[in-house]
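Bumping with the actual sequence this time:
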Amino acid sequence: MSDVTTPRTTPRTALVTGAGRGIGRGIALGLAAAGYDLALVGRTRAHLEAVAEEVRAAGRRAVVAAADLVDGTAVADAVARAEVGLAEQGGIGLLVNNAGVIEAAELPFDQDDVEDVWRVVETNVRGPVLVTHAVLPAMLARGAGRVLNINSGSGHRPMSAYTGYGISKGALARLTTMLDHQLRDRGIRALDLAPGVVRTDMTAGMPVHDDRTEWTSLDEVSALVVAFADGQLDALSGRFVRAGADTPDTLLAQVDEIVAQDLRTLRLP
């Protein structure tokens, strides 16, 4: 397997954004089942509290911090509360930037509402930038931490609609590569995970999926999240994986080839 410096022991804890429902809820519960304590962050406290009860029923600690993730002050406060709430467990070991939105209408850019396009870009880029920046100081002080950005194939390929979403996911991929390039030697690992197409409220409202019969399961998503959290995928830091196409086992079997050929990253050929 490719040589990679392993960061110091990372706390078995995670902060998950957008954890109140959908993929975020599934990721939080998957991590709890794997023995992780959770900080649940999002806009709607009632949804977060419901998930927190499920996490506690699984025997794990759950800290709730409601915040608007494009508000820098609110994000800093939420992250501070999460660090304090998980202090006995070692602080935040894994950040999952899951919260995100998509345009209200499935239209090409020239027909779309530019303000709605910008709402999507701001939410999907500013949010992860703010949360990651707030989480990093404690991770760097410990010399260990992992950042998982929930991405999409839309960030790598052209689409006939949802322009803001594609722009935001391309930017998120670049954030992942920048974090890896700048902070790998200081113990930080970063990964892009595309969850495939999971049946959620968001995908249910997208006409492009009206006739879909095959969906990615949350179990497949959670398996990759837990593998990254456990350090199994550290050699792929800065790269892109996809639930439904990749599994921890297939990635580990391919890791030398991926690294040697510099695959799974956003770059010019």
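The tokens above came from a reply further down the thread. Strands lie at 13-17, 37-42, 62-66, 94-97, 145-150, 188-194, 240-242.
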